[in-house]
């Protein structure tokens, strides 16, 4: 199963694709430093996406609260092994 940060990273990438944004433009939309966002959204992220930024992304791009933390299945997890 993917980590919460892995899901957030995937969803943030999805937002950029949906809105045809690069990291520079997304940083401008969110009003945050481009280098900080790059550290979170690069192919090998060096920083986690904090809760506050996840909420800001959801609000800015009109996604429901908690959207960034839901996997492709809508957040339903069938974890048979407790991993």
Would you kindly provide a written description of the structure presented here, covering whatever features stand out?
The chain is mainly alpha-helical and 83 residues long. It has one domain: Orthogonal Bundle (434 Repressor (Amino-terminal Domain)). It has helices spanning 4-18, 23-30, 34-41, 51-60. The radius of gyration is 13 Å and the shape is globular. Mean pLDDT is 87; it is low at 75-80. It comes from Bacterioplanoides pacificum. This is HTH cro/C1-type domain-containing protein.
CATH top level class name: Mainly Alpha
Distance between the termini: 7 Å
SSE run: HHHH
C-alpha Rg (nearest Å)? 13 Å
Helix content: 40-55%
Number of helical segments with 4 or more residues: 4
Global outline: globular
CATH architecture: Orthogonal Bundle
The stretches of 5 or more residues where confidence is low (pLDDT under 50) are 75-80
Number of strands: 0
Tell me the CATH topology.
434 Repressor (Amino-terminal Domain)
Number of domains: 1
Mean pLDDT: 87
**Class inferred from helices and paired strands:** mainly alpha
Proportion of residues in β-strands? under 5%
Q: Biggest β-sheet, characterized?
A: none
Protein name: HTH cro/C1-type domain-containing protein
Organism: Bacterioplanoides pacificum
